[in-house]
Amino acid sequence: MAVALHGSCLLRYVIGVTSQETSRIRFVASLIIDMTIFCGSPSDLGCDARPATFAETRGNSVNISSTKSMKILCVIESGTWVEHQIVGSLMDSGHTVSVYRYGPAVGEFYPRARHVERNAKNRALVDMADDLSRRSGLDLIFCYVYDDFLQPETARSLRRLGVPLVNYNVDMATQWYRQIRIARYFDRMLCAEPVNMPLLARYNPRVLHFPMAARPPAPAPEGESAFHPSAPVTFVGTPMPFRVALLSLLHQSGVPLAVYGKYWLDGRQASAPAGLEKTLADISRYTWPKLRSEGFAGLARALGRRLWRQRAGAGGTVPRELCHGFVPDGGMQALFARSKINLGLTRTFGDNLDLHGTYMIKLRDFEVPMAGGFYLVERAGGYDNFFKPGVEVETWETPGELIAKIHHYLVHEKERNQIAAAGKLRAVTEHTWERRFSALFAELGLNP
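^ that's the sequence the OP posted. Answer follows.
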């Protein structure tokens, strides 16, 4: 009752502001979305919601050679890492892959004016899946989708086809709830990280830890193999306050640095504030699930994060001469392999360089070792389950430690190369998408 009272008071506050105060609506509404409280236990739903762990993939526990050729429909965003990494890897493994591309981004919002478009896309997806199932058969429907696009009735229709249906969430730290309206229809909810899996399991107990991986490099197209980084130390990613502040500090400390990725040349930040209609839609869909999940401590953390970004932000700038644009995929492999040091920043929240933040294991954390690059990555919980620090990758925790290790490894080439070689061996042996999917096929009973 107390939770409902606090939530309704905040909602009344939002509704009560004037039309001239839309910025305050967005800010307060974003706080409401971040509110979390855990009420009851998974047993309240009448199911065992303990998350399943990912099948052990070391040694000979997964027999990749025994995996039969599958007919798979992938439901994904267009032109991003998913298509190159996952679809490409499935095709490399000899599977027949059909692709339905619903739009440019997994979190794309469809305002009321685009509902007709969204509904037409949903119908087209069902028609495509039904046609493939009837004409040639389907072994698996693999989705990377939020319920911003996929409607519950569409998920229900896909389920009725009798084809194993899975959905992947790679942002469990901050977006675990964006699949709860459709979760019940999937045979497995795949989670790149174990964080918040018990919360998602309230809506479907069949959650499975399905870590990120990487696609082994293919020969680069003509010209791309000649790509060389502009400095010995490189970072690839988009601008965020913490990243800008840290990279500025590295530059001031004399680190020879080159920065690649979207927005750097524009001087913009990667994340833009949500529009008012999306904010209010998120409130109506996700306020209660968030309220009943993480507690008032979660609310305090969310409030602190919002206030920090609103009031302070992170200082520093990255000089334009250090900034570069996109690198093509073939060039990306060369960049990773030829940089003396590849920087990894795993922080997703927390802009203060002197304080701990929230961290997430990402695709990059597998891509760099897979390419044979030396990887100096910010410590994230659980990453040592994939690579041994100081042996297969190197890690850092504070800016001072990072700067010291950069200067150390710039002049210790033999040690740097040994770590890079060991990291590549571990990645190729254990952390390919082929191994991940072979374990998933076994989990779903699809292997012969």
